[in-house]
Amino acid sequence: MSYDKIEVPDEGEQITYDEDEDVLEVPDHPIIPVLHGDGIGKDVGPAAQKVLNAAAEATGHDIAWMDVYAGEDARETYDENLPQETVEAIREHRVAIKGPLTTPVGAGFRSLNVALRKKLDLYANVRPTYYLDGVPSPVKDPEEMDMVNFRENTEDVYAGIEWEAGTDEVEEVRDFVEDDMGFDATIHDGAVGIGVKPITEFGTKRLVRRAIEYAIENDRDSVTLVHKGNIMKFTEGAFRDWGYEVAEEDFPEETIDEDTLWEEYDGEAPDDVVVVKDRIADNMLQQLLTRTENYDVLAMPNLNGDYLSDSAGAQIGGLGIAPGANFGDGRVLAEPVHGSAPKHAGKDKANPTAMILSGKLMLEYIGWDDAADLVHEAVESQISEHRVTYDLERQVEGGVKLSTSEYAEEVVERIEDLA
Ligand code: NAP
Which one of 55, 115, 185, 331 has the minimum C-beta count within 10 Å? Predict the structure, then answer.
């Protein structure tokens, strides 16, 4: 495949996907697109690549990185925010990693992150939230958190269906809502912005199915559907109902609901079943703090998932260490939870751990578990000695503050020692 401005590495090979078997075929030297992104992305991206290269090499693998562009870099090179060839390169190569991309608030272009996820149909944003030994945390027992968040990635208020105050379109929608749909005296007079929140059966079921499959395959105890269905009955309420339906229809032997748990098992679930339960989102946010150990895998509509994963990330040490990845069918785009943190950009100070651990998720997805384990072990041992970047160093006594690149170099040395 040739592109206009993307250079394909000569020595690598493309990862392919067997759709019937639902398996990736990963060559010895896969080409992996990398998008550094904006702001601190340019600091943490190269640092993470060094660590991932070291882990790959130490376990007999090799990655052929292929730079692709979006955001500021793309504006310079292509004079657009998200070039089509970037989307195509990620689509074709199936496994990729990206740093954060800046989104202006209010006016300006729409989120490039949301656009990429939608264009590539990466419908599940998966964010594991687990404690690494030695990480300073604002809560008493951070080790109680060991959760995986599945956030729906393609719909909800992120669908981008909204109209700006003062436009003809928004007045047309107001008329339709008031006159045709009967919601008179509901919207205040004067300027209004209106958005639409689609939650579909299709989008909900494929996300919840993936979360339940994950829970079964990884011996997890429960999947919690997090919604605000008491208020938004036909969107978030429907998410809950369709979520339970998937469990009943697709996993009748492997799942039970909470009523059955209490009625038939007195609250003690058998080892081989996953309990499917639901919580209202506001309650869930306090349960995360007060009953942390009761939650295992969460499945959520887009907005709840966004709020909840940042909050959960704070409990285990902050955004600098919270990894994530966007999954579609036979496709992954790994990316940290954090954004481009413009005030820290270009200072070689941001914490690259979230980007490194996002890379670890990517390595697991391509079946390089040995390399992924090395990354985990090396990062944990680095942090446990409190040799960390500014964000963690300010929270621990006697820590040693390292730059992004120094931190990555030390993690690389640990990988070499551990291998
Ligand atoms: P942010 O970039 O995540 O940064 C918020 C704060 O979190 C930073 O000021 C910093 O806190 C801390 N932080 C984040 N990443 C860190 C790291 N690697 N190391 C150390 N500290 C880190 O959130 P934001 O300021 O709300 O958003 C900035 C831009 O990023 C916006 O344009 C937003 O749209 C975009 N964004 C993109 C993505 C994405 O690409 N997926 C995700 C979220 C946001 P302290 O300053 O207190 O140390």
Answer: 185
